[in-house]
Amino acid sequence: MHPMLNIAVRAARKAGNFIAKNYETPDAVETSQKGSNDFVTNIDKGAERVIIDTIRQSYPQHTIITEESGEHAGTEQDIQWVIDPLDGTTNFVKRLPHFAVSIAVRIKGRTEVAVVYDPMRNELFTAVRGQGAQLNGYRLRGGSARDLDGTILATGFPFKAKQHAPAYMNIVTKLFTQCADFRRTGSAALDLAYVAAGRVDGYFEIGLKPWDFAAGELLVREAGGLVCDFTGGHNYMSSGNIVAGNPRVVKALLAGMREELSEALKR
Ligand code: 2AM
Ligand code: CA
Ligand code: CA
Ligand code: CA
Asked: What does the entry list as the binding residues for Mg(2+) (predicted)?
């Protein structure tokens, strides 16, 4: 096994077990507000600590970037761990058992290793660049849809950037007439993992952060899928506007979205 995948899996399992244990003891969960409609708990921070400590034991020189505590610079800037310790905090707080730990390793800006771990279902999604994507050790192949007909699409509402709501709703209206149905799960990392697993056929969302999609992006690619921005380009690294699915589904999604995009979403 890739040595960094080994450490990423160890960190994700330790953090996932910590989250699952605390899911059983709601009184131990302390929630505070980061912004409007945006919460963080002591469990997000505790899981992050577990992950950082695990990585630091093996790779003290690497740089670590996390949602809750930002950048932990190492002497090695070319190797960056991009981490969301708990993706789906709103679900966790509401006691809706759908959330995950997301860990990616980027070397010179290219993602080499990805882990998304769902501790409630004990599902471990992994990928190494060029070596495919797996779920609990079994090879993943994304969905085989040829167009949007009959597809299930995952998405996330722009819960923070509500100025995008009108354009977003226009996109949903347009695509809804072409697909079978939508799912809105509340965890971007699991949405992307589910695209990789073919559990949903396509996915799009506005304004993700790097830690939301760093691991999921590699899972999708290694399962034979594509990830791009709303115009088919590569601006999603900065815009966080993401479309994912098999190449034919992505093409159909982009075609459906095209006329509904506001200027701000054309990147
Ligand atoms: P988080 O739980 O790590 O903050 C993109 O949709 C990301 O935003 C999700 O993966 C999730 O990451 C967060 N998110 C999704 N829906 C949300 C909501 N309604 N309120 C706050 N955060 C949300
Ligand atoms: Ca958050
Ligand atoms: Ca997240
Ligand atoms: Ca998070």
From this structure: 67, 84, 86-87, 212
